[in-house]
Every structure is written in structure tokens, then in C-alpha cells.
Amino acid sequence: MQKKNEFKIIRVPVPSPTLYPHTNTNCYLIGNEHEAILVDAGYNQPETRIVLEKTISDHNLAVPKSIILTHAHPDHAPGVLQLQDWSPTVYCHPAEKETTLAAISPWNNLSFLNDGDTFKVGDGEIQIIHAPGHTSGHLNLYIPTEQILLAGDNIVAEGTSWIGPPDGDMIDYLNTLNRLMGLKIKKIGPGHGGWVLKPYQHIEFVLNRRLEREKQIKELLHEHEQLTSISLTKLIYDRYIHPSIFEVARRTTEAHLIKLIKEGSVSLQGTLYSIQG
Ligand SMILES: [Zn+2]
């Protein structure tokens, strides 16, 4: 017998041309048969709607009347355009307004959520967290009763997220990860890949990876005196990196360099980075 009004959080991988090694973007359906919301809308292609509507009917959920976008990137936001028949209210963080409007154009009706807001759906309550890093207006969603965190692209199941200009900021990102460590979490729903069942271990892995990378960048700048972000990225990654993601790797390197410049340990002249002191 099916439980009545059961509150559900369903991960829905929808196909998207996203970054190697991932081939899907996760959307999440939250709610019950009377009321549901969608978190992230995937890529703007018909499969998005087909997969979502099948999942809604398989799990006996209401058609979502609200869509919360974690961020504006092309594999997360523009799928809204496939879902206009639902007449949804579309939410993002105010800092993500311009990039989201650009991503979902000609849709131009946005509502906003801020850090500390709560969002009620079905019998459940969702806490909204402003979690900048991957983008400046990135939203995370936390469901305290289930101890579940939906982390968008701040966490991916395999490897690490790319963090870089113009949208991303490494100082923000490390602060966000440290803040997320303070939540009571049983599992993390990432932007790409399966549920993360060892949340603290995974966040620590990402934090350590970023700190190790920073140390490596400083060592390479000591050794080579002056490097561009391209030559630095080649020295860091050449043997391991899939060619299709070299550019996001370079931008992640650049995000580290921007952090080190702000902290006064690296300087930039033209396109050449060097260590200070
Ligand atoms: Zn993204």
C-alpha cells in the first residue's frame, strides 16, 4: 500500500552535454502528490521534459509549480524553456539574476530567494543557503528533517567542480565548503553524478584538493619564476587532463592565482604570474 502524502526527494539525472566524465545533469523533485518543486531544470532539449514528466508520474508527484535554479549555467537553467506548460514560478538568488535571465531568455519572469529563507513544499521545509563559489549567486538547498543537502555544482560526485572567473571565486568557494561542513548531513545530492553518501569525507577531499593545488602552484612559481596561467595549467595537469576540459582547468588555476594575488603572495604583470617575496 502506498503511503499517503509521503514526502519525497528524487534525484533525476537528465541527459546533458556537460563536462567529462559526466553525461547528465541532476534535477531534483521534492514534495508529494499534492505539491512538488523542481530544483534545476537541466539543458534546453526535449529529453529534459520527457525524463522529468516520466519521473513525476512514476513517483506519483504533483506537477511542480516552482522551479529553484541553483545557478545559471547552460546545463542547469535553460531547461526551464521546456517546462513552460507547467506555468512555474522560477527562483534564483538575486546575485544570479542577470546570468539567469540570459540563460533562460526569452523567459523573463524571475523570483528571488536569499540566504536564510525557508521554502515550504508538501509537508516538508527547505532551507535556502547562499553558497557562492562555483558562481556568485549559487544556491544550495538543505532539508533538515532528512539531513539532505542539494549542493548544485559546488559538489560533483566524481572528482572536483571547476571554479573560475568570470562566475566563480576561490575564496568564496573555500568559505562555502567550510560552512557546509557545519551542517548535519546524511547525504549530498550533487549537480552531477550519484548521491554522495560520505558527505564530510567528500567535502574534505575537495577542500584538501584545492589546498594541495594552491601549494603546488606556489611551488611551481618558485621553481619557474614567471608563468602564464596556460603554462602553469600544463605543468599541473598535462598528463592527467582530458583535453575537452583544459579551459575549465585553466580557469580553476586562474581562480587560485586571483586568490593568491588578493592575499599578497603572488603578483601579475601582463600575463605573467610570479611569487612575491
Ligand atoms: Zn555549473
Anisotropy-based shape: elongated
**pLDDT under 50 segments (min length 5)?**
none
Overall CATH architecture of the largest domain: 4-Layer Sandwich
Q: Mean pLDDT across all residues, rounded?
A: 94
The ligands bound in this entry are: zinc ion
Count of individual helical segments: 6
**Main sheet makeup:** 6 strands, mixed
Fraction of residues in H or I helices: 25-40%
Helix and strand pattern: EEEHEEHEEEEEHEHHHEE
> Using only CA atoms, what is the Rg?
20 Å
Percent of sequence in beta strands: 15-25%
Distance between the termini: 70 Å
Structural features, described:
The chain is an alpha/beta fold. The chain has 2 domains: about 10-195, Ribonuclease Z/Hydroxyacylglutathione hydrolase-like (Metallo-beta-lactamase, Chain A), CATH 3.60.15; about 210-275, Winged helix-like DNA-binding domain superfamily/Winged helix DNA-binding domain (Arc Repressor Mutant, subunit A, Orthogonal Bundle), CATH 1.10.10. It is built from 6 helices and 13 strands. It has a 6-stranded mixed sheet, covered by helices on one side. The protein has a 5-stranded mixed sheet with strand order 7-8-9-10-11, with no helix packed on it. A two-stranded antiparallel sheet has the order 12-13. The mean pLDDT is about 95. The structure holds zinc ion (ZN). Zinc ion binds near residues 73 and 153.
